[in-house]
Amino acid sequence: MLAVVFVCAACGLVYELELVALASYLIGDSVTQASVVLSLMVFAMGLGSLLAKRLRCRAAVGFGLVEAALALLGGLSALVLYATFAWMGESRYALIGFSLSIGVLIGAEIPLLMTLIQRVSRQDAGGTVADLFAADYVGALVGGLAFPFLLLPWFGQLTGALLTGAVNVVAGGALVLWIFGRDLTGRERGLLLLVNVLVLAVLATAAVLVDDFERAARRAVYGDGVRVAVQTDVQEVVLTGGVEGPLDLYLDGRLRVSERDEHRYHEALVHPAMRGPHARVLILGGGDGLAAREVLRYPGVRSVTLVELDPGVARLARTDPALAALNEHVYDDPRFRVEYADAFTWLRGRGAVGAGGPGGSGAYDVVISDLPNPGITPSTKLYSEEFYGLASRVLAEGGRLAVHAGPPAVRPRTYWTVDATLRSAGFGTSPYAAMGQAAGFGTGPNRSHDGKNAGGDAGAGAGARTDWGFVLAEVGRPPAVELAPDAPRLRSLAPPVLEAGILRAERTRLRDLPPSTLVHPRYAG
């Protein structure tokens, strides 16, 4: 019985973590989604405990039916959530429903198990409770570790949830039919056996069809032009177009590159920072190679170091014909090298070995921060005062830092918090913006080409204009937002465009905002 308690507790925690992971992926802002899911589930567990009092007189059959229902709902939760997002464009209500229903069923387990275990245990009530909760907590530990280290990498979110449901229904059904079978009437045994077989059949059928489902859902989300869809150790990477039609690159469902106008973003990010010395350039993020493409257009550049978290993105940027053509094969340039690391950890290590500091032996003339928007929770530390303090240590004297800071028109508080954070780290700042045609770079998921499923700042249609916000910074003084005398010929950027971008950003200015730090992040998701 304690072994079954262990297994059921592990399965229950996997369902919780599955909902948190999917909510963060489909909706965005992992802190908010985790808080919503976990608080709803804990609340529902209390309701389930109260409702289970009505089943204690028939605890065996009640527990068997509860486990069957839990296995069915938990096992199918990932499929249903992804389906509602892909075909309906919204998964919040389904998420709330699953959080409450799974919580109620998990909450009903303990009272029913207490009733059952007291029938076979010779211990006093206190010893029985201790054994029950020990098995429950250890099972939760195993389930919590199995989810990120076993289920996700080996089976993925959908198959992992289905497998967990199958284990859950087998464990619950075996306990009731084996140990307490004599307590059941013939009709109850038949009912439980039928329900368990049906649940296993549904889960097995879903597992057989899961690949077809993924392909259909992916087409519904990204369109029919999906060429590459891979799940790396870090994120889901999807490429659409590139052979027929413009190339789009999605990372975890967020549009990161649109061939239609990526040049507007990358030219605005890179070229104002290249005014001044630029022999050594550091790019944080930007594994697609497009920021590096702009940097390497300057003949005075001697070396470019790119720090990228995900080797899978870099591998695609090097080997995919369409993406490699778009970045002009920068990965083959002898001046270009890649280091795979978290940008924060990498900068911290550079400072630790004494490579950083203004004028230091390892100093860079230009640092370009081509990172996701700060509203995406995992990237918040990369927009903190501590991060910019580390960046200042690898800048040469008079070196410049260019930061992608999110859309000032749509999220002015986030944008100007980046500016305030840079100033608190000792930088002088010069904010500016650029306009584009393709919606993207949103803080929330943005998977729809026509904008119907777009989140974040990409809610308008495909033809709508969006703004990208940047901050150019230099230690001690604000740098001029101008083009270098040796700037190459650009497709979208010119002095009048930069002047208009400065005014566009200034019109959204918010003053007296506090900086964001590691212990007190200020960015809203």
What does this structure look like?
The relative contact order is 0.10. The protein is built from 14 helices and eleven strands. The strands form two sheets. A seven-stranded mixed sheet has the order 7-6-5-8-9-11-10, with helices on both faces. It folds into two domains: 2-220, Growth Hormone, Chain: A; 248-506, Vaccinia Virus protein VP39 (Rossmann fold, 3-Layer(aba) Sandwich). Helices cover 52% and strands 14% of the residues. Helix 11 (343-352) packs across helix 12. With 525 residues, the chain is of the alpha/beta class. The model is unreliable at 352-361, 440-445 and 447-464 (pLDDT under 50). The chain is elongated. It has helices at residues 2-27, 30-52, 59-88, 92-120, 125-179, 186-222, 262-270, 290-295, 311-319, 321-326, 343-352, 385-393, 412-424, 495-506, and strands at residues 226-231, 236-240, 248-251, 254-258, 280-285, 303-308, 336-340, 364-370, 395-404, 427-436, 466-475.
List the helices and strands and how they pair.
Blueprint: H1 2-27, H2 30-52, H3 59-88, H4 92-120, H5 125-179, H6 186-222, E1 226-231, E2 236-240, E3 248-251, E4 254-258, H7 262-270, E5 280-285, H8 290-295, E6 303-308, H9 311-319, H10 321-326, E7 336-340, H11 343-352, E8 364-370, H12 385-393, E9 395-404, H13 412-424, E10 427-436, E11 466-475, H14 495-506
Parallel strand pairs: 5-6, 5-8, 6-7, 8-9
Antiparallel strand pairs: 1-2, 2-3, 3-4, 9-11, 10-11
Helix pairs in contact: 1-2, 1-3, 1-4, 1-5, 2-4, 3-4, 3-5, 3-6, 4-5, 5-6, 11-12
Pathway: Amine and polyamine biosynthesis; spermidine biosynthesis; spermidine from putrescine: step 1/1
Family: Belongs to the spermidine/spermine synthase family.
Main location: membrane
